[in-house]
Design a protein that fits this description.
Order of helices and strands: EHEHEEHHHHHHH
Shape: globular
Oligomer: single chain
Helix content: 40-55%
Radius of gyration: 17 Å
Largest sheet: 4 strands, mixed
Strand order of the largest sheet: 2-1-3-4
CATH architecture of the largest domain: Up-down Bundle
């Protein structure tokens, strides 16, 4: 299978999961200019990453769909929860929160002009976004208070959290006092699969 990615974006979560699974895979970096190429648009009509192409040519888009597919395709990796319906629901609860709440909250920090044309208002917009994000990370930190992983066992949700906390640090979101989150981040940085994925992406 092949993962189409851009360095450090949400596709890093899928890349880490592929490393954790430990089965053969390929990666192909998509340059920003290539996102709108006719060839790439055949794979991803919206011109975004990630895209996963399975061994038989089947194409899958959307980050959490890819993450869930990988968990189901390789059950021996135990990345879909603790094996119970509630365990899987917990994984999807946190995936949903990261994908639907946390991830979109970064948009004003990356592209403020898409929200407000007046450049003089961008700083206020971004301060509001940072405050919202801090409240989200406070919730994530609380979830990690008595566990090493978001859903209790290591899962497909954890690399996504790792990705968004990297963005938070890069965009000056205040994560001060979130000791449980910091321990999680240190654990991820020490993980061989995380190291391998980041090295491959040059980040």
């Amino acid at each position: 299978m092949k993962l189409y990615y851009m360095p450090g974006v949400c596709s890093l979560a899928d890349h880490i999961v592929l490393e954790w699974i430990g089965q053969p895979y390929q990666i192909e970096e998509v340059p920003r200019a290539g996102l709108r190429s006719p060839e790439y648009l055949k794979l991803s009509p919206d011109g975004v990453v990630p895209v996963l192409v399975d061994d038989d040519g089947w194409v899958l888009t959307e980050n959490i769909a890819i993450l869930n597919y990988l968990a189901d395709r390789f059950p021996a990796a135990h990345l879909g929860g603790d094996g119970t319906p509630r365990g899987r629901a917990e994984v999807n609860r946190w995936l949903g929160f990261l994908n639907s709440d946390v991830h979109p909250a970064f948009k004003p920090l990356f592209r403020p002009e898409r929200f407000i044309a007046d450049v003089s208002s961008h700083a206020e917009l971004q301060d509001t976004a940072r405050a919202k994000l801090r409240s989200y990370f406070e919730r994530l930190d609380s979830q990690l208070a008595n566990r090493n992983w978001l859903a209790g066992t290591r899962s497909i949700a954890d690399p996504y959290l790792f990705v968004v906390q990297r963005w938070a640090k890069a965009k000056a979101v205040d994560l001060g006092g979130f000791d449980h989150l910091e321990r999680f981040v240190h654990r991820m940085h020490a993980d061989p699969g995380v190291k391998a994925a980041m090295c491959a992406e040059g980040i």
